[in-house]
Amino acid sequence: MTEKRMSRWYFGGIASCGAACCTHPLDLVKVHLQTQQEVKMRMLGMAMHVVKNDGVLALYNGLSASLCRQMSYSLTRFAIYETVRDVMGSGAQGPMPFYQKVLLGAFGGFTGGFIGTPADLVNVRMQNDMKLPADQRRNYKHALDGLFRVWREEGTRKLFSGATMASSRGALVTVGQLACYDQAKQLVLGTGLMGDNILTHFLSSFIAGGCATFLCQPLDVIKTRLMNSKGEYRGVIHCLSETAKLGPLAFYKGLVPAGIRLIPHTVLTFVFLEQLKKYFGIRVVS
């Protein structure tokens, strides 16, 4: 008889919150880079600019919204993906085929992206607020204040501004992270050279983070521009065409900081998740 541990449905949200606390400054710098109309600053220069103008704590602007987003977006996608995968895996011989992982990841990510759109909108606005002139700043006190004010001042529809892009991005990120992590871990363990330990988790999640960054960056740029707009874009297609005028590389603006944020975030999420599963997961004896 062998014993293994299965993840609980809410572990993904907790692990993502832990990772977000570590990588939030990188996420903030990425948003600043994506919303500048012309390339004026690189990653390090933008970080120094934020610290110089607003202090070190400004790097954590919007943290409450980021955590709120993880507990809606990430909790949903992990819950759908891991629950369905574990149910299907327990009734079948061997792990799920990769194409099924991709389809499940896309569905989970799309659903999570839609549910997490309001928190994501407030997150982007809170991070970008310090760039605006003092008279144009929104000055949300925290995530819940931001959600309430957007609903009261701009209506329910505005809360889901950019939902199409956020859902599409969520699908791609989840395919890159969850499906690729599972597949990479399966391949690494299949070599027989490494066991199911933290080194394997690190290597698999690093690969998954790279895949996710490359897949979602164009959508991430469009989503950030739409969410931060003050009405200058008529919709997704208009935003797409305006961004395209800046050249094809505009869709990969902030790719390095996005990778520097998303890869560590992915690594930390899965390392935390595996440790939660190891110590607090559901015992399964087979």
UniProtKB/TrEMBL annotation:
GO annotation terms (biological process): lipid transport
Membrane protein topology class: Multi-pass membrane protein
Cellular localisation: Mitochondrion inner membrane
Lineage of the organism: Eukaryota, Metazoa, Chordata, Craniata, Vertebrata
Highest taxon above the source species: Eukaryota
Assigned keywords, A-Z: Antiport, Lipid transport, Membrane, Mitochondrion, Mitochondrion inner membrane, Repeat, Transmembrane, Transmembrane helix, Transport
Family: Belongs to the mitochondrial carrier (TC 2.A.29) family.
Pfam families according to UniProt: Mito_carr (PF00153)
A GO term, aspect molecular function: dicarboxylic acid transmembrane transporter activity
Role: Catalyzes the electroneutral exchange or flux of physiologically important metabolites such as dicarboxylates (malonate, malate, succinate), inorganic sulfur-containing anions, and phosphate, across mitochondrial inner membrane. Plays an important role in gluconeogenesis, fatty acid metabolism, urea synthesis, and sulfur metabolism, particularly in liver, by supplying the substrates for the different metabolic processes. Regulates fatty acid release from adipocytes, and contributes to systemic insulin sensitivity.
Solcar repeat locations: 3-87, 100-187, 196-279
Source organism of this protein record: Carassius auratus (Goldfish)
Catalyzed chemical reaction(s): (S)-malate(in) + phosphate(out) = (S)-malate(out) + phosphate(in); (S)-malate(in) + sulfate(out) = (S)-malate(out) + sulfate(in); malonate(out) + (S)-malate(in) = malonate(in) + (S)-malate(out); malonate(out) + succinate(in) = malonate(in) + succinate(out)
Entry protein name: Mitochondrial dicarboxylate carrier
One Gene Ontology cellular component: mitochondrial inner membrane
PANTHER family assigned to the protein according to its UniProt record, in alphabetical order: MITOCHONDRIAL DICARBOXYLATE CARRIER-RELATED
